[in-house]
Design brief:
- Helices cover 26% and strands 28% of the residues.
- By secondary structure, it is an alpha+beta fold.
- Helix 7 crosses helix 8.
- The strands form four sheets. It has a seven-stranded antiparallel sheet. The protein has a six-stranded mixed sheet with strand order 11-15-16-5-17-18.
- It has two domains: 274 residues, Rossmann fold (3-Layer(aba) Sandwich), CATH 3.40.50; 75 residues, no CATH class.
- A hairpin with a 2-residue loop joins strand 9 and strand 10.
- Keywords: ATP-binding, Nucleotide-binding.
- This is ATP-binding protein.
- It holds the Pfam family AAA_21.
């Protein structure tokens, strides 16, 4: 489970920015449903990130994705460039290092792992084990100098390239702590694929080979009011998911036959719902404790479906996290805690800033009923709303 993610000097996020899934202090609303107790602390089952177009919502998830890719993929050569995309709209940040840090629970252990880098080298890297209120530095390096290092990994450190994360080398040497961290990045941090893709990822599509999963999926689609009555797999080098629809005659009577079609024939909304359903089923099948990240949630779904999914994310039985970005403002008034709602705003200097509604003092009064966060957001009470001049937009098009 993700506890915190921090990044600095990445794309539009210039200053240190933290996305926290840790529950806010002295908040009890929806505690039994929307939160999970993971030992030292409790975490939120879902985080919803709102903001205007171009504010930087996708950049926030891109930072997590970049960290994951760097952890899982070691540069083959010492001269390979690292994926440095610093803030570029001032005189200094373009030459400064980018920093990522993540605090998470993996199994029964909690870790904090962080590193900073520029295009050529890893500048700093550390792995910390967290035991209640006590922290133990497992390893730490500054450049090629190791400040803390288990004696069993001394030779591994000597083989580590300047542009290679020591974590990758340590897990290759069968180090238990490094393997635990790598496992979390590889298996427990799950990015739901791009909804624009015509095909469902193979690892999700093949789930329908399991009859029970197939039945669950079809029941889910039925209750979501989708006219899909069957699903199958078109086997081949890349298995493809097929969805079955009822066939009717010219009088509108069901012929008793179904027509199976590939996902290229389905709407984007249908693909989005299928992808979300299979991702949640897969998380359950693989042991729970997953963190699912979704960019552009609800873009092609009816509001009622988006609201239903958010409710599912926060069901008491759900043992996974979902972090999503969305433009669907009515979701602000879902059954959410104030610490589950984040807002991204970009200032005139092009710098993105992330804030939780929990940070606004008057939003913490949970005793008041009927508060519309969507209304207050639109009114600009929380910032993060675009300043749009419709007349000016029209004039600019008409003056061609």
């Amino acid at each position: 489970m993700l506890i915190d993610f921090t990044m600095e000097n990445f794309k539009s996020f210039k200053t240190e920015t933290t996305l926290s899934a840790e529950v806010g202090e002295r908040l009890s609303k929806y505690k039994r449903t929307n939160t999970l107790d993971i030992g030292r602390t409790a975490v939120l089952k879902s985080l919803l990130i709102f903001g205007a177009n171009g504010a930087g919502k996708s950049n926030l998830l891109a930072g997590i994705k970049t960290m994951q890719q760097m952890v899982l993929n070691n540069p083959a050569k010492a001269t390979d460039a690292l994926p440095a995309t610093p803030f570029l709209l001032d005189a200094d940040s373009g030459n400064a290092e980018t920093r990522f840090a993540v605090d998470f629970k993996q199994g029964n252990a909690e870790y904090r792992y962080e590193f900073s880098y520029d295009q050529k080298t890893i500048q700093h890297e550390a792995l910390i084990k967290v035991h209640g209120n006590r922290e133990t530095v497992y390893f730490e390096r500054v450049g090629q100098k190791f400040l803390t290092l288990p004696s069993a990994l001394t030779e591994v450190a000597e083989r580590t390239k300047a542009n290679t994360l020591f974590l990758f080398m340590a897990q290759q040497n069968n180090d238990a702590a490094a393997i635990a961290v790598m496992t979390w990045f590889a298996e427990d941090l799950v990015f739901v694929a791009d909804f624009d893709e015509a095909e469902i990822p193979e690892e999700l599509a093949v789930l329908v080979r399991n009859k029970r999963v197939k039945q669950q999926l079809l029941r889910f689609l039925h209750f979501a009011d989708f006219n899909i009555v069957d699903s199958d797999l078109l086997e081949g080098d890349r298995p493809q998911l097929l969805m079955g629809h009822k066939v009717y005659d010219t009088d509108g009577q069901y012929t008793g036959k179904d027509k199976k079609m590939t996902l290229t024939s389905e709407s984007r909304g249908t693909r989005q719902l299928l992808l979300m359903a299979l991702s949640m089923i897969n998380a359950k099948l693989t042991g729970d404790g997953k963190t699912l990240l979704v960019d552009g949630f609800g873009d092609s779904l009816h509001l009622a479906l988006s609201q239903a999914l958010v409710k599912i994310f926060n069901f008491a039985a759900n043992q996974n996290q979902v972090i999503l970005t969305t433009h669907d403002l009515p979701l602000l008034d879902s059954a959410l805690r104030v610490d589950q709602i984040y807002l991204v705003e970009k200032g005139f200097q092009g710098i993105s800033e992330l804030r939780s509604i929990f940070d606004f003092r008057d939003s913490r009064n949970t005793s008041r009923q009927g508060i519309s966060y969507m209304k207050r957001y639109i009114e600009g009470r929380f910032g993060a709303t675009p300043i749009i001049d419709a007349d000016g937009m029209l004039t600019s098009l008409m003056d061609l």
